[in-house]
Amino acid sequence: MVTEQDKTLEAVQLAIQMEIDGKEYYLKASQESSNELGKKLLESLATEEDTHRQKFEEIHSAIRSKKAWPTTDFQPDGGKRLRTIFARATEEIGSNIKAPNTELDAIQTAMDMENKTHDFYKSQGKNATYDTERDFYEALAAEEREHHLILFGLLRVPQRPSRVVCQKRASFPGWWLNLRTRCHP
User: Fold this and answer.
1) Quick one: angle between helices 80-93 and 36-66, nearest 10?
2) What range does the domain containing 142 cover?
3) Predicted model pTM
4) Phi (first) and psi of residue 69, to 5 degrees
């Protein structure tokens, strides 16, 4: 008989694998990127995915031993660090950013991965047994949304290099409607 704990552990294990896959993808894409902005952002995203994986592994271990979802200290920064990297790199590189279609395809794939992860975490949050579990999944879903928005900004740079696309907090979906703010140093 499958218990609630078994279902929770299975979902956490799937989340761990999603984060591993994300990290591997971002590292591979960063190595193949021909521009510094792309490399820096993708490497930073790989680091964040690894942080998520580590937190899920801690949760998995706690659930197995305590039979309940643990209290977590996970506090995402809302994408501030990644947006700062994005803004600095764009300022340094200026408007000479060129990205071949393969890089644009890699960014689009990464955006799709972030959407899938976001949807999974939102679903898990809705079905959570514990408040701490729901809060954790909601925080991660929000961070995955931020990753998507930042990738969208990266995708837009080669198309509109004179403008750096910044984002305000927006509800998801429909976030693209709020990507009209121009950033000027």
Assistant:
1) 170
2) 4-183
3) 0.74
4) -70, 130
> Rounded CA gap, 48 and 58, in Å?
16
CATH number for the domain spanning 85: value is: 1.20.1260.10
- Burial of residue 166 (CB within 10 Å: 0-12, 13-18, 19+) is middle
End-to-end CA distance of the chain: give it in Å, rounded. Answer: 59
Crossing angle for the helix pair 4-32 and 36-66, to the nearest 10 degrees: 160
Question: Two tokens at 161?
Answer: 């290099």
- Considering only CA atoms, which of 177, 129, 128, 120 is closest in space to residue 149? 177
- Asked if pLDDT for residue 165 goes beyond 50, the answer is no
Nearest to 44 by CA among 118, 150, 156: 150
| Of 45, 185, 36, 37, residue with least CA distance to 109 | 45
Total domains in the fold of the chain = 1
pLDDT-based confidence at residue 126 (cuts at 50, 70, 90): very high
What is the rounded distance in angstroms from the CA atom of residue 37 to the CA atom of residue 32?
Answer: 12
In this predicted model, which residue has the larger pLDDT, 178 or 29? 29
Summarize the confidence of residues 5-14 as an average pLDDT.
91
Confidence of residue 57 (pLDDT cuts 50, 70, 90): very high
| Count of helices and strands (H, E) across the chain | 5, 2
